[in-house]
Amino acid sequence: MKIVQLTDLHIGLEGEDTNGVDVRGNFLNVLRHLRANPPDHLVLSGDLCFRVGTPEVYAWIREQLADLPVPIWYMSGNHDDPEMLARAFELDGGFMQDGELYYHAILGGREFIFLDTTRYEMSETQFQWLRDQMEGRSDTLLVFMHHPPGLIGVPFMDNKYPLRNWAEVQALFLDYPGEVYVFSGHYHVDKSVHLKNLHIFVTPSTFFQIGQQAAEFRVDHYRVGWRELVWSGDAFQTTVRYLEP
Ligand SMILES: [Fe+2]
Hints:
- The chain is α/β, with parallel strands linked by helices.
- The protein has a single domain, classed as Metallo-dependent phosphatases (Purple Acid Phosphatase, chain A, domain 2, 4-Layer Sandwich).
- The chain is built from six helices and 15 strands.
- The chain has helices spanning 23-36, 55-65, 82-88, 124-134, 155-160, 166-175, and strands at residues 2-6, 41-45, 72-75, 96-97, 100-101, 103-107, 110-114, 141-144, 180-184, 191-195, 198-202, 209-210, 219-221, 225-232, 235-242.
- A six-stranded mixed sheet has the order 6-7-8-9-11-10, covered by helices on one side.
- A hairpin with a 2-residue loop joins β4 and β5.
- The site of fe (ii) ion has 6 residues, from loops.
- Fe (ii) ion binds at residues 47, 77-79, 146, 186.
């Protein structure tokens, strides 16, 4: 089973200047690749919109995805509006809970948890739901969340834009009796961090990648990236891919 994770699309309105990057073109180029190499599932892990949730942008994205014969799982990032997003993609009540878009789903026989960190933290209700999902389990936990649950050694993002309650979320995962794999975005980098049983994989954006050393904002490069998660039987492997220039 192969899952493709696309993240931080940051699509703007038609004609809008998105920092000089053709984000719509980037997205269409990735979709061209996915049509030729379809995965079993596609996850859009938040920040679909350039700055704020916009119905026209969600409608445009939906139109582009219409002929992709792959189940798609939607998540909201800090540059999205989860309720607007859920309406635009007709996600029914099972996905939205008290204004947050979090749910669990079975993909290729494996259970996944999708969290909503739009507001730079999870509500107490969502956090309790997560605890309930983990209760009594010790199998490998597979989680998608827009913000990584921890600092990951990218000073600009760690200092300015981390998940507010990352320590609390990380402690919960570190307490889990099994392995925890978390697939995130938000940082616009390709990086993974491993802390005991917790494995955090951060996926690059389709917009631009951020410099990993500097404390101030710096673009690292403009190659368009995504992540592939592949299971062959029980063997798992994950790889970041970039579009050929
Ligand atoms: Fe983000």
